[in-house]
Amino acid sequence: MTDSIMSKAATMEIPINSNGDTGSLQEDDSLEQAAKLQWSLDEKVGSSRDTRDLQQVMVSGPNLNETNIVSGGYGGTVEGIIPTSSITGNRDGSNMHHSSSSSSSMAAEQTTRGVAVEKLEYMKKWGFNTYKCTKQMISERFGRGSRTVDLEMEAQIEVLRDTKRKYENVLRLARALTNHFYNMVQTQHALGDTFADLSQKSPELRDEFGYNAETQKLLCKNGETLLGAINFFVSSINTLVNKTMEDTLTTIKMYENARLEFDAYRSDLDELNMGPRDAVTMARIDAAQQQYHVHREKYERLRSDVTIKLKFLEENKVKVMHKQLLLFHNAISAYFAGNQQQLEQTLKQFNIKLKPPGAEQPSWLEEQ
């Protein structure tokens, strides 16, 4: 059809008049229409050829895993091949990094959730136990509940607390004596230095000032020796009161708390045994019996610990106080008797070492 149209267009005669104009407008219109038709057909044929070329390139073209890069530089064009697998690898690495970070965040979240659940369970048990103990304590104060009583143990505990209060008073007075006596020794030392200076500047009273200076220096030396004995006495009493007795009282507090818990669970078990015996109640009774046995063992163990500590505390107290009271008596007697040799012998007997004369005397707060 195209060939016939082209042949027709080629063989058409175009008459031209003497002035050079076309002979007929109709023939011009037919030729223009033929040209337009030929152009549209060429466009269709070209598009079909492009489609076939693209398909051929897709089938038999270069590998898509490689990319040709042409760079124009000073030396001309340079071609390079970059494998696209590296880009894919980077994408896979980013995906793996994202998955690892998400898994680590999930593990951290699970750990946090586990800790929160554990704390919640602990608070639940603590609140339940506190409620039972508070209920038992109120019942005991109002005379409604029963309590486990050990008369011998409670009498020993009361004696210990009274002894501790009295020993604390002895410790307070001994510290006050140490401070006052230390101030007196410092005054004697300053007074002896003043007498010695005046003996050098007052020739007419040199002997009198000299005697008094020697006396004050001797008293100061004996006073420092006595301070060493008193400080040792105070330190030993402080250890006995604030460490040994306090440790025993801490165990006694734990024993009293265990006794309160034991009585609370015992009362709970007694109430359950007095109620109906259905399936739910029997399960609660079994759980209450387990808690009762656990707290009973804890109570008996702490009771045994308190008994042992009270025994050893009494023996240690007698031994320590015998030694310290003997030291205090001998040191005070020797000092006020003016017996310097006996005072020094007392310190050697109890293995007390004095500080050098140049060292400052610590206060009782520094000895704690």
Description of the structure:
The chain is mainly α. It contains 7 helices and 2 strands, in the order H-H-E-E-H-H-H-H-H. Strands 1-2 form a two-stranded antiparallel sheet. A hairpin with a 2-residue loop joins strand 1 and strand 2 (76-83). Helix 4 packs antiparallel against helix 5 and helix 5 (206-273) runs antiparallel to helix 6 (279-336). The model is unreliable at 1-28 and 57-91 (pLDDT under 50).
Approximately how much beta-strand content do the residues carry?
under 5%
The average pLDDT value, as a whole number, equals 76
Lateral arrangement of strands in the main beta sheet: 1-2
User: Which radius of gyration do the C-alpha atoms yield?
Assistant: 55 Å
Structure summary, number of beta strands:
2
Overall SS class: mainly alpha
* Main sheet summary: 2 strands, antiparallel
**What is the helix fraction of residues, given as a range?**
over 70%
Question: What are the low-pLDDT stretches, counting only 5+ consecutive residues below 50?
Answer: 1-28, 57-91
Shape: elongated
Secondary-structure element order, N to C? HHEEHHHHH
Distance between the termini: 123 Å
How many helices?
7
Short description:
The protein has 368 residues and is mainly alpha-helical. It is built from seven helices and two strands.
Essential attributes:
368 residues, mainly alpha, two-stranded antiparallel sheet, 7 helices
Give the helices and strands, then pairings:
Blueprint (H helix, E strand, L loop, with lengths): L1 H10 L13 H36 L5 E8 L2 E8 L1 H57 L9 H51 L4 H68 L5 H58 L3 H10 L19
Antiparallel strand pairs: 1-2
Helix pairs in contact: 3-5, 4-5, 5-6, 5-7, 6-7
